[in-house]
Amino acid sequence: MKTAVLGAGLSGLSAGYYLLRRFGKPLTIYEALPRVGGWVRSENRKDGNFIFESGPRTIRPVGEAGANTLELVEELKLAVKPIPRSHVAARNRMLYAKGQLCLLPNGPKGLFGVLPPFTKPLYKALLRDLFTKSTPVKTGDESIYSFVERRFGKEIADYAISPMICGICAGNAQEISVRFLMEGLFEKEQKYGGVLKGTLYALFQNKEKDSKEGLFAQGQPKLYTQALQEKWAMYGLQGGLEILPRTMRKYLVERDVNVQLSNECRNLSFNSSGAQMTIKDAEVPVEHVVSALPAHKLAPLVKQQHPSLCAELLEIPYVDVVVVNLQFQGNLLKQDGFGLLVPPVEKLPILGVIFDSCCFDMGGNTILTVMMGGHWFEQWFGNRPSQKQILDLATSHVQKILQISEEPKFSRIHTLHKCIPQYTVGHKRRVESIRNYIKFFKLPLSLCGAAYDGVGINDVILSARRQVEAMQ
Prior knowledge:
By secondary structure, this protein is of the alpha/beta class. The protein folds into three domains: 3-42 and 240-316 and 423-469, FAD/NAD(P)-binding domain; 89-204, protoporphyrinogen ix oxidase, domain 3 (Orthogonal Bundle); 318-421, Polyamine Oxidase, Chain A, domain 2 (Alpha-Beta Complex), CATH 3.90.660. Helices cover 37% and strands 23% of the residues. The chain contains 18 helices and 19 strands. It has helices spanning 10-23, 63-75, 88-91, 123-131, 144-152, 154-169, 183-192, 195-204, 222-229, 243-254, 295-302, 307-313, 356-359, 377-381, 387-402, 427-440, 450-453, 457-469; strands spanning 3-6, 27-30, 42-45, 50-53, 80-84, 93-97, 100-103, 232-237, 258-260, 265-271, 274-279, 282-286, 288-291, 318-329, 339-341, 350-355, 365-374, 410-421, 445-447. β11 (274-279) and β12 (282-286) form a beta hairpin. α1 runs parallel beside α10, α2 packs across α18 and α5 (144-152) packs antiparallel against α6 (154-169). The protein is globular. The N and C termini lie close together (10 Å).
């Protein structure tokens, strides 16, 4: 089977990896940019012995998707940097709310005290769920904010769920589908009348299946077993996360996979023998196309032949994010941890701050990553501010929140346009409709990546694997 993959981000490279493993050659990956990795970008500063990450920096070794990524990491022989659950970066996560830095509870004891920004013990939110009647949702979906507010109260929705959504997808919890993160809880509530009731009933009935059986019938990856035994909370990679796509490219090229950079697909049409791609000015025929492009990039390629498919793809919205990396000399943090999130109700221009130097050794420097924009990008950056304005805004808020008086010695600013898809209410049905269209018209096209099956690193890699395995 002569197959083409569009996009050489993590999902596209993963699609190449699984296509090679399943079908062998010939296989070509086309990437519009002169580099692989998509939004994953690591800048190693040898002069200061630290790394700036403008995209993700850690991976969680959780469940089937986490095991799948570790299998890939193992195959590529990459050096991992584990962060165990006992590590301060795993234990301490914070909010900046009501004018103070608030440490979030990290164990059962935290349910019973009153910890700011909350005004009552968290166990009362659980009791609320236990005694609140279920409300049938006729559309089969609602916002995650609405769901949490219904079950656990407005305070939990404002100060727990909303900032978490900011941290994961830079989105507005009042628009994001409950099925994005809490599909299982939502379905239990709809079926059994409550989240706790449904969870307890499912445990009692022993209906929870071991999700690892499907992919790893022959035994789980050694690295995943190690992660479980050593209780990893998350892990990074030696040299920064960009080492993953770079090594994947090297692995594929060494096995005669053609990875073409600076080669953008400009049109995509389908016929009885497969697909026709326009790459630069050449027409390239293939039997099957795996698109790992963002939905908004794929849409115009199919518009001429399939305008309704184009329209459905464009219904998946994206947000812009500003990432500011800061380096300060010495250890300036008064409270170590993974970082902090800022609830949208605080109406501040930053979404959160990651404490990189608490997660990994950064040569005695304080390395911070400030995330801004997302759903609120236009509100804060609509007039195209200068790099200096962005840096000043990020620095001033970091200095105030973390009580740092020094100026950063080194910084990097990245504006990532349309970088994170938003799983707004109805997303699951939207994706089903897109894939049903492809199936109905028997298009030799598979879709994988962050637009469809989850926005995390584990999600996009597993998305590629599942779409390849579904191919005939």
